[in-house]
Design the sequence.
């Protein structure tokens, strides 16, 4: 499976901090570093994948990796940050932790608890929402409900969609203000 997030999209919605759910093989961590994020934090629930990424990024002081689930550790990963964060929400079980399902609703609740209400939120795999895949739980995720939860955090969020490496308009983006005007596309 290839990295869904592209450099063009991530650069367009850049803040100082990048917080990711679902490290997988570390592709988005490396991409965030390549895009110039000053601090990258990522969580992975699969022990084997976590250990591989811990080795891969062990010498990079700008990377903090967490083992566990976003439902339990996302608050810890982000609450000490006092500036807007670019969140990359791509946490799902990939079939090996079936009881965890898709944590997007909980992740948005946790982001809503943060005192800053102007984070940039990128959500992957929009094409899967509402699909019948009982192994991952995508059928239980409703796009309108996701948007409602984002707007509950801040009703001024602008919602747009970006293409990913997995398909057109597959990344939902919630942001305040303007995206990077230098590379901004049409919405």
Sequence:
């Amino acid at each position: 499976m290839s990295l869904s997030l592209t450099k063009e999209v991530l650069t367009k919605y850049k803040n100082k901090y990048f917080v990711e759910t679902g490290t997988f093989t570390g592709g988005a961590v490396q991409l965030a570093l390549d895009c110039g994020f000053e601090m990258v934090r990522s969580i992975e629930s699969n022990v084997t994948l976590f250990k591989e990424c811990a080795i891969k990024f062990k010498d990079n002081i700008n990377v903090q990796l967490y083992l566990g689930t976003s439902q339990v550790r996302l608050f810890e990963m982000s609450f000490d940050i006092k500036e807007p964060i670019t969140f990359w929400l791509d946490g799902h079980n990939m079939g090996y932790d079936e009881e965890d399902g898709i944590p997007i609703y909980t992740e948005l609740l946790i982001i809503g608890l943060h005192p800053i209400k102007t984070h940039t939120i990128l959500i992957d795999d929009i094409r899967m929402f509402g699909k019948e895949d009982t192994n991952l739980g995508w059928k239980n995720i409703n796009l309108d409900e996701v948007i409602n939860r984002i707007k509950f955090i801040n009703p001024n969020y602008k919602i747009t969609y970006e293409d990913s490496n997995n398909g057109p308009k597959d990344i939902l983006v919630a942001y305040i203000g303007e995206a990077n005007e230098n590379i901004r596309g049409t919405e």
